[in-house]
Amino acid sequence: MTARIGVVTFPGSLDDRDTQRAIRLAGAEPVALWHKDKDLKQVDAVVLPGGFSYGDYLRAGAISRFSPVMETVIEQAKAGMPVLGICNGFQVLTEAHLLPGGMLGNDHLHFICRDQKLRVENADTAWTADYVSGQEIHIPLKNMDGRYVADERTLDMLEAEGRVVFRYMDFNPNGSLRDIAGITNEAGNVVGLMPHPEHAVEPLIGSGRTDGLPFFTSILKKLVAAS
Amino acid sequence: MARVVVDVMLKPEILDPQGQAVQRALPRLGFEGISDVRQGKRFELEVDGPVDDAVLARIHELADTFLANTVIENFTVKVEEPAVGAEK
């Protein structure tokens, strides 16, 4: 028994294949989903991958948010289906108002690509249970529009409810308010973050660390336990 | 035919690094006395037929749900009649 995890491909998605690979390495079955298709093929969870869907025209994630597949994803996410948004996927989730706040251009106005140190602030979400709260991890970060913004009241609420899931450590790469790298919704089934866990799942590649793999093992365990 | 213009601006409390970069370039170009620049987006919508209240309400809804993300941006909608003798 394994779990089926969908990965949406939008026009301009870049990391859908890497995400499918990470899911497979964790022991789950990746299922390709297409942006024009409302059908989620009976998957147990969905990942919205990184990239520049619809060219980031208008605002990052603004057009993808209205694609046919997102109609079903939004409906299912509200019903409790686990959804992970990575980078552009995080931007889509804020545009869809499944997560509060918004994403804007990096404060230094440059694209940034680096190995980023993060602290896991919440290890209770569907996607982070295989981490330990307070754990420090390194995950690649690459973005143009990575600045997380929200009004003070929303930021205070996120902090008070433990909904900041990841925070940038040592260096804030994009001007995100309160060093926020990732957040979750109230129920903990929807998580979005800017760094790319799917690029840190094999010792052979990149920094040689596999700090991103627990995202995919966390969700697999949760889904298998629930079935 | 009328033109409806939707202007979208970042909310005042949100940092606008692009506007700041423009503002910092001004003294070098000989423009003094401009203390702040904020950059926004302008959408020009060419509407077929008359722009009545129903059409304006639809455009307002369009701006509210799509052209602007009201979590981070504000917008205004205004009707611009084409001037006599203007192009087109």
Automatic annotation (TrEMBL), chain A:
Enzyme Commission (EC) number: 6.3.5.3, 3.5.1.2
Q: Where is the signal peptide?
A: none
Q: What's the catalysed reaction? A: L-glutamine + H2O = L-glutamate + NH4(+); N(2)-formyl-N(1)-(5-phospho-beta-D-ribosyl)glycinamide + L-glutamine + ATP + H2O = 2-formamido-N(1)-(5-O-phospho-beta-D-ribosyl)acetamidine + L-glutamate + ADP + phosphate + H(+)
CDD domains hit by this protein: GATase1_FGAR_AT
Subunit structure of this chain's protein: Part of the FGAM synthase complex composed of 1 PurL, 1 PurQ and 2 PurS subunits.
What is the stated purpose of this protein?
Part of the phosphoribosylformylglycinamidine synthase complex involved in the purines biosynthetic pathway. Catalyzes the ATP-dependent conversion of formylglycinamide ribonucleotide (FGAR) and glutamine to yield formylglycinamidine ribonucleotide (FGAM) and glutamate. The FGAM synthase complex is composed of three subunits. PurQ produces an ammonia molecule by converting glutamine to glutamate. PurL transfers the ammonia molecule to FGAR to form FGAM in an ATP-dependent manner.
The record ties this protein, via NCBIfam families, to:
FGAM_synth_I, PRK03619.1
* Protein name in the entry: Phosphoribosylformylglycinamidine synthase subunit PurQ
- The gene is purQ
From TrEMBL, chain B:
Instruction: Respond yes or no to whether keyword ATP-binding is given for this record.
Output: yes
Keywords assigned by UniProt, alphabetized: ATP-binding, Cytoplasm, Ligase, Nucleotide-binding, Purine biosynthesis
Supply the InterPro entries for this chain: PurS, PurS-like_sf
Q: Subcellular localization, per the record? A: Cytoplasm
Q: Looking at the record's lineage, which domain of life comes first?
A: Bacteria
ATP-binding as a keyword?
yes
- Output the SUPFAM superfamilies linked to this UniProt entry: PurS-like
Q: Which reaction(s) are listed as its catalytic activity?
A: N(2)-formyl-N(1)-(5-phospho-beta-D-ribosyl)glycinamide + L-glutamine + ATP + H2O = 2-formamido-N(1)-(5-O-phospho-beta-D-ribosyl)acetamidine + L-glutamate + ADP + phosphate + H(+)
A family per Pfam: PurS
State which pathway it belongs to: Purine metabolism; IMP biosynthesis via de novo pathway; 5-amino-1-(5-phospho-D-ribosyl)imidazole from N(2)-formyl-N(1)-(5-phospho-D-ribosyl)glycinamide: step 1/2
Write out the GO biological process terms. Answer: 'de novo' IMP biosynthetic process
| CC terms in the record's Gene Ontology section | cytoplasm
Enzyme Commission number(s) from the entry: 6.3.5.3
A GO molecular function term, named singly, is: ATP binding
Q: How does the record describe its quaternary structure?
A: Part of the FGAM synthase complex composed of 1 PurL, 1 PurQ and 2 PurS subunits.
Q: Which HAMAP family match?
A: PurS (MF_01926)
Function according to Swiss-Prot or TrEMBL: Part of the phosphoribosylformylglycinamidine synthase complex involved in the purines biosynthetic pathway. Catalyzes the ATP-dependent conversion of formylglycinamide ribonucleotide (FGAR) and glutamine to yield formylglycinamidine ribonucleotide (FGAM) and glutamate. The FGAM synthase complex is composed of three subunits. PurQ produces an ammonia molecule by converting glutamine to glutamate. PurL transfers the ammonia molecule to FGAR to form FGAM in an ATP-dependent manner.
**Which NCBIfam families does this entry report, sorted A to Z?**
phosphoribosylformylglycinamidine synthase subunit PurS (TIGR00302), PRK05974.1 (NF004630)
Q: Which family does it belong to?
A: Belongs to the PurS family.
The protein in question is named Phosphoribosylformylglycinamidine synthase subunit PurS
